[in-house]
Design a protein that fits this description.
The protein is α/β, with parallel strands linked by helices. The protein has 33 helices and 22 strands. It binds thiamine diphosphate (TPP) and magnesium ion.
């Protein structure tokens, strides 16, 4: 099965791979050493880096990148192996010495691979362990999606989606959520290659864990390929005494194996002879070997054996079943702290590095040279140029592009004016109208893909789904419909469907939004993903949301219903922190409309903004609060910028009421009374404290740079008297508004629930949490008095 190809007389591909592996081990170690010891350190902080983690996975990455991968494959590399990835790209001519020498320095290579900061050679950012691994499964699902919808030329080769994972990543719960979801969707073209060094950050893993992983993966329909021993050990096992040796290693506790690895050949000999010196054939196996040779034999695990690795990867030709390779490795392999339980952040000392340099035959001053110290540098150079992965995916790197999908100036809209309806219902109706795919919206409609973690119907995605169908690679009938049982919801699945239904796992929603939101870049096909989730459970998936934003994925998040307005549902379902979260999350433009006319403007904007190079993902926080929809003319630019006057203040007015979202009616009621006393007062609708704050900060930066700039919030508050009182209200923590007082030095009374909610009706809860009209009026009175 193995295809060891001669390159030149006496030299074949395995020799070349071994040379590359050696070079990568040196470069990754040197990069980290350089960052920590050879650069000026201005703040005295540890720079850090993971030489042992890199050494653990170097052979695996060598085999993959220099033999197995094809340019269209997509890889998530475990975060702490970033330096190996940079070294690989360097050997392939796609990374600079400056970047590597700047590892963990501003402007240099990032600590952990970053799509955005490290540029176009990185397929997936990693850093929060477990997420990059799971993302490969969702990215593969989205590959199937774009192909099933006919967006991709079917002759384009399918990408394998590969995660190179640390074994401790398998402790993360999101891995198992992703495995289950992957099973449901019958994912394929996925490989997870586990660097099975049986060490995490703190220590050696318990032995009891082994065997669990294999069973778990198999239960989820995966093929598991356990790669335990390298060729030399396998050969020794076949000799007399070999079966005893194998039995001994198989039984050896992880911590003993690690400790012996660290201690080296003499310790191995002592342990082996103590345990099986009398077993037939064992001495004949061991005695002829020097200590070094014995140490090398005992640590000849498959994850460091290029022949075993390439053979196993090449043999995995089935694409229809995801495959997990459990490749046994030693953390720190080839370095002085190999196997030591404390080696995670361990770093070679200057003396150890010098010894390592001598071993690698690297001359001082030539540390960054590509092929320095190799026996056959020219041969390796030629080999590197011919590996399949060396063919660039695009001339600009691995990030693809896709044209923008035209968005009509105005989305088709249901009749809204005069009706009593909520923003959540409005969202469902607008999306349903888009789903008709008539005229100008046809193109937009085709590229929208919705997704929800088991809350599609209760977040009003139902009408859209009825029009566009549920996605599945296989056609599955809707049993209720076929049996003529009444249901408002069609649930037949087919490859043309445009809704992806997930189980209740919010991390999966955000990972899928992340994968779908990178489709333009990964598949060269733009999608407009729309995900719905209950607002409080944004918290449940927040790390994955943060992760999706960090990768600059583009999607529309709808969180609904929200706040204590969920009244009877009680405190666990009432998130008050999300409006503040919306402000502080980068690469996510967040809005909270109160009325459906604002919502329509914001949805149109979202489909634009998601596609703009300078844009971002968009978040709309919606509500089930029913409000009578006004007839009025809105300035879309103001709604998008974050605030518009419902009733503009008189010039020099002393007070304004500001509201956000579902509490609009309370603000209006309070305002009507306030106006009787203070005729010039203003009523301001806040559609996005997030955009207002971002705009204010941007204007401040401009002004500091000496350029004139005025932000929307400064402009819109400018008719008020200097120091005018602001009374603001939202169904969320008032910290989201507190900053508004700083814009013009106004007094601000920010109202909003700042304690856990509870069951009740809106009347009781708004009173209890002081966001009803009476509370707003009290705040106005206090604010005016204090002036
Ligand atoms: C979500 C998350 N929690 C904690 C960490 C800190 N951390 C970084 S690496 C690591 C251990 C990783 O062990 P493993 O995946 O086995 O990697 P390896 O042994 O190959 O270094 C931890 C806990 C992290 N990066 N992400
Ligand atoms: Mg590990």
């Amino acid at each position: 099965m193995n295809e060891i190809r001669p390159i030149e007389p006496g030299w074949d591909t395995l020799d070349a791979l071994a040379a590359v592996e050696r070079k990568l081990l040196w470069l990754a170690s040197w990069m980290i050493h350089h960052a920590n010891h050879l650069r000026p350190n201005r703040d005295g902080l540890k720079v850090g880096g993971h030489q042992a983690s890199c050494a653990s996975v170097t052979a695996i990455m060598t085999a993959l990148y220099f033999e197995i991968l094809r340019p269209h494959d997509r890889v998530a590399v475990k975060p702490h192996a970033g330096p190996v990835l940079h070294a690989i790209n360097y050997l392939l001519g796609r990374q600079s010495v400056e970047q590597m020498a700047g590892l963990r320095q501003m402007g240099g290579a990032q600590a952990y691979p970053s799509r955005v900061k490290d540029g176009a050679e990185i397929d997936f950012s990693t850093g929060s362990v477990g997420l990059g691994v799971a993302l490969t499964s969702f990215a593969s699902l989205m590959q199937d999606y774009v192909r099933a919808h006919g967006f991709v030329d079917p002759t384009t080769p399918r990408a394998r989606h590969i995660a190179i994972a640390g074994d401790a990543e398998l402790d993360e719960g999101n891995i198992y959520e992703a495995l289950l979801e992957g099973w449901k969707h019958d994912v394929r073209d996925v490989w997870w290659v586990v660097d099975y060094n049986r060490q995490s950050l703190d220590s050696v893993m318990p032995d009891r864990l082994f065997g669990r992983f294999e069973g778990l993966f198999r239960d989820m329909g995966w093929k598991v390929v356990s790669l335990k021993y390298g060729k030399r050990l396998e050969q020794a096992f076949r000799l007399p005494g070999g079966s005893s040796l194998r039995g001994w290693i198989d039984e050896c506790p992880n911590s003993t194996f690690s400790a012996l690895t660290f201690q080296g050949g003499a310790a191995w000999r002592q342990a082996l002879l103590a345990d099986m010196g009398k077993s037939r054939g064992v001495r004949a196996l061991i005695d002829p070997l020097t200590d070094d040779e014995l140490g090398a034999l005992m640590t000849n695990l498959a994850g460091h054996d290029l022949a075993t690795l390439t053979e196993a990867f090449r043999a995995a030709t089935r694409t229809d079943q995801p495959t997990c390779f459990l490749a046994y490795t030693i953390k720190g392999m080839g370095l002085p702290f190999a196997g030591h339980k404390d080696n995670h952040a361990g770093m070679m000392t200057a003396e150890q590095m010098e010894a390592f340099r001598a071993q690698m035959r690297v001359r001082p001053g030539h540390e960054w040279d590509r092929f320095e110290g190799l026996a056959n540098p020219k041969g390796v150079e030629r080999f590197v140029q011919t590996v399949p992965f060396a063919a660039p995916l695009t001339p600009r790197g691995r990030h693809l592009t896709a044209p923008t999908i035209p968005v009509p100036a105005k989305l088709p809209q249901p009749r809204i004016i005069g009706r009593k309806m909520s923003t959540q219902a409005g969202f469902g109706e607008i999306l349903s109208e888009i789903g008709r795919a008539q005229g100008e919206t046809a193109a937009l409609s085709k590229r929208i893909v919705t997704m929800s973690p088991d809350v599609a119907v209760s977040t009003n995605l139902g009408p859209w789904i009825n029009r566009r169908g549920v996605f599945d690679r296989h056609t599955r009938d809707d049993v209720f419909r076929d049996s003529k049982l009444a249901s408002a919801q069609r649930w037949g699945m087919n490859p043309e469907g445009q809704h992806i239904e997930l189980g209740i796992a919010e991390q999966n929603l955000f990972l899928l939004l992340g994968a779908a939101g990178l489709s333009h870049d990964l598949n060269g096909q733009r999608l407009l993903p729309v995900g719905t989730v209950y607002d409080p459970f944004v918290n449940r998936g927040h790390d994955a949301l943060f992760y999706a934003c960090y990768q600059d994925a583009r999607f529309l998040l709808i969180s609904t219903p929200s706040g204590i307005t969920l009244a009877p549902e009680g405190g666990q379902h009432q998130a008050t922190n999300t409006p503040a979260l919306a402000i502080v999350q980068d690469k996510l433009a967040a809005f909270e409309p109160a009325y459906c006319d604002e919502l329509a403007i914001l949805m149109t904007h979202a489909f634009h903004w998601m596609q703009r190079p300078e844009g971002s993902a968009v978040w709309l926080r919606l509500s089930t609060q029913v409000l009578r929809q006004p007839e009025r003319a809105l300035d879309p630019a103001a709604v998008i910028a974050g605030a518009h006057w419902v009733v503009p203040p008189a010039a020099g007015a002393d007070i304004a009421i500001l509201y956000q979202g579902a509490v609009a009616a309370e603000a209006e009621a309070a305002f009507a009374e306030l106006r009787a006393d203070v005729p010039g007062a203003g009523l301001l609708a806040l559609t996005s404290p997030d955009r207002l704050y971002a705009g204010w900060r941007a204007a401040q930066r401009e002004r500091r740079a000496g350029r004139p700039a005025t932000s929307h919030i400064e402009t819109i508050l400018s008719p008020l008297a200097p120091g005018a009182a602001l009374v603001s209200v939202l169904d969320g923590h008032p910290a989201a508004h507190a900053w508004l007082g700083g814009v013009r030095g106004s007094k601000i009374m920010a109202l909003g629930p700042d304690r856990f909610g509870q069951s009740g009706d809106v009347t009781d809860l708004y009173r209890e949490y002081e966001i009803d009209a009476a509370a707003i009026l009290d705040a106005c009175a206090e604010a005016l008095l204090r002036r």
